[in-house]
UniProtKB/TrEMBL annotation:
Classification via SUPFAM superfamilies: Phosphoglycerate mutase-like
InterPro entries: His_PPase_superfam
Organism: Shewanella gelidii
Name of protein: Phosphoglycerate mutase
Length: 203
């Protein structure tokens, strides 16, 4: 059994029209959603040993700022809790969270995301990886969830549905339980959506 964690970058800014798509930063709302979502993603995702164990982030600036924002929020919340209670909390160790920037994750294609996941364990340092976290983009994330849960995206699936998540909102998190022994086996119908949370859930 494997667990796939998917995080869509937080709301980005279009203010500076001279920037290319990959260079765009987060806007105020995006930074705020990172603060709202951090502890919830940490708790649902299993913390440092789960959602933050093996994190790969798109090369887009907004995706990297999202991951930085999540970690910063966790560190701040941990420090605030320690100051109040003078002891360690469940968020202890969040300063050690690390991630890798992966250029191939700057994609809007679910097929490319799937192919990337299927080859992750070909790297000896990534062998036996029970948790995998991607910080990326729509429509790739939304469509990947639908396909992995057994739907033909864009066509009619089970119960007349064509997708599992109607809209994978910016700053949102999805967790999929994958009935596979290795990431190479990841494919259509191999997963079930266990959790999906979005910033609006915590406003």
């Amino acid at each position: 059994m494997k667990t796939l964690h998917l995080i869509r970058h937080a709301k980005s800014s279009w203010k500076d029209q001279t920037l290319s798509d990959i260079e765009r930063p987060l806007n105020k709302r995006g930074h705020e959603s990172c603060r709202m979502m951090a502890a919830n993603i940490y708790g649902i995702g299993g913390g440092i040993q789960g959602v933050f164990a093996n994190v790969y982030v798109s090369a887009a600036h907004r995706a990297q700022l999202t991951m930085q924002g999540l970690q910063h929020a966790l560190i701040q919340q941990e420090q605030n809790a320690q100051n109040k209670r003078n002891k360690k909390t469940q968020l202890d160790g969040t300063e050690h969270i690390s991630w890798l920037v992966e250029p191939d994750l700057y994609t809007f294609s679910w097929q490319e995301l799937l192919s990337w996941c299927q080859t992750i364990e070909s790297n000896p340092t990534s062998a036996d990886m029970p948790h995998l976290t991607l910080v990326g983009h729509n429509p790739a994330l939304e469509e990947l969830v639908s396909v992995l849960c057994g739907f033909d995206y864009g066509t009619t699936g089970l119960a007349g549905q064509s997708q599992v998540i109607e809209k994978f909102a910016t700053g949102s998190y999805a967790q999929l339980q994958c009935n596979i022994a290795s990431w190479a086996q990841l494919g259509r119908g191999s997963a079930q959506l266990k959790y999906y949370i979005k910033p609006k859930d915590f406003q």
